[in-house]
Amino acid sequence: MTNTLHRYGDAASFRDDFVVFAMCSRGKNDENAVARLRQFLEMALQFGPVNLGDARHGGALRPSRSMSPLAHWRRNTKPDFRAVIEGLDTATTAAAVFDNRPAAEDLMKAVRAADLGLSVNISTSIDGAEQCCDAAGLCRHSVGYSLGFEGKTGRLPNEDVLMLSTMCGHGMVSSSLAKKMIDWVKEGRRTPEQAVTYLARFCSCGVFNPSRAVRILEDARKRTR
Amino acid sequence: MKINPDKCVACGNCTYVCPVGAIYIDPAIHRATVNRDECVECYACFNGLSQEHLNPTLVRLMRKMFQAIRVRFDPEPDVCPTAAFEPEELVWPRVVRRAFSDPRVPHESTGIEGRGTEEVKTNDITGRVNVGEVGFTIELGRPGVGVWMREIQQMCWRLGAAGVSFESRNPITSLMTDVGSGTLREDILGEKLMSAIVEIKVPVARTEEIVRLVWEAEKELDTVVALGVGTRCGPDGEDHVLAPILERLGYKLERAKTNTGLGRITNRPAEARSSEVVTR
């Protein structure tokens, strides 16, 4: 899932960002995968994730196809984790996002004990992943490093915007919307918590980290960029 | 993607949510309009915006009234008030845009959503990248800039000339007419994508050569590149080989995805499945 690999930020900025995801490989371990992926998400739910998702249906906050005009005043901004688990109906990638390392470590221990047979990866800082593996008694099999962004980097937005928009590696969270939300928080038109719900609904696989996004928006509020 | 001008009320919400900035309010018609050349058919507008089904005439009237008295209307920023977006039936070669840009659509060649690649994340059961090998994921267009297929062609030709091995289970490779040289189908070169990953594998000794080759190729492109490099860890779970090379090249390694080695082959052998079908 390279959509979690190239998040913008230094290692310290990933202190509240741990994405654990499970997937199968076609023809190798995809028989009966749906039940095992659901089991993975059920296990994750016990450890207080900030988001859950599957690559086909999205995360715990989703857009509505028929929104009531009254929703502008009483919009539901609570993540629906149960809908993610029950909605997973195909062999895809299932992801759980945590904002603290102990929770990710606990999930890794539980997944190891359950022996689901799925490939399980953790995407975070290199040290953070090593610590999670150590805590669960796992030996890293393979590692994929992000070397960051190169080429015509002058076409990229500023760092705060990039930190927000790259939390959906598929590019569904646009940099324009991220910039707009930073501006709205600066103006006091929305709280960081409210602004984050708008952004999270665009992430199509549920790996957006609302907790980290709130912190980034709070930091950006006073910054001059 | 199309926006129905009879429904659009020019609220402007969609102009912000388009990841490549391809939506604008056309001053000639006072409606949101999609720049079809730049649109990558990612469906972020259609899938990501919540939809209301308000009466367009009524909404336009209210907007005009508010505007006349300089009252700022403050709607939710992630809503299309009149459900004006209408997906169109895409035909070849434009359909390639959606295949690479809408992450909910699985690639036919690999069956995987997103950019359609597994890289090292299933390496524990596929053995895609072995000890002494390095897998490169060279992603063009990310984040949020987009890339033309002709630019991907330039990168592939550079890599092909270096004699690298393109990953067979990769959507870009599946569009090549000559995998040896890295030549893509000519009829898709005018298509723009959100991003795409060129995936190759080389012996670890060629790591520096490939990185330098990518640096050279990047200079010719009008887009950004997100470079990922993966390898198999040693028996102790450590990477003593690749990381030192990358650090010597000036990279500061901050983030990685780590395959924890929990995957195993669980499918029954093909013979077992076929005999089960016969007995039924």
Proportion in helices of chain B: 25-40%
Number of domains of chain A: 1
Radius of gyration of chain B, whole Å: 23 Å
Number of H/I helices of chain A: 9
Estimated radius of gyration of chain A: 17 Å
Low-confidence stretches of chain A: none
Amino- and carboxy-terminal Cα gap of chain A: 31 Å
Explain briefly what this protein structure is.
The complex is a heterodimer of chains A (225) and B (280). Chain A is of the alpha+beta class.
Topology:
The complex is a heterodimer of chains A (225) and B (280).
Chain A: H1 2-5, E1 18-23, H2 33-45, E2 51-54, E3 58-59, H3 81-87, E4 94-98, H4 101-114, E5 119-125, H5 126-136, E6 142-151, H6 159-165, H7 175-187, H8 192-200, H9 210-222
Antiparallel strand pairs in A: 1-4, 1-5, 2-3, 2-4
Chain B: E1 2-3, H1 13-17, E2 23-26, E3 31-34, H2 44-48, E4 50-51, H3 56-68, E5 79-80, E6 85-86, H4 95-101, H5 123-126, E7 133-140, E8 147-148, H6 149-161, E9 165-166, H7 171-174, E10 176-178, E11 183-184, E12 192-193, E13 196-203, H8 207-218, E14 224-232, H9 242-248, E15 255-259, H10 270-279
Parallel strand pairs in B: 4-5
Antiparallel strand pairs in B: 1-6, 2-3, 7-13, 7-14, 8-12, 9-13, 10-11
Helix pairs in contact in B: 6-8
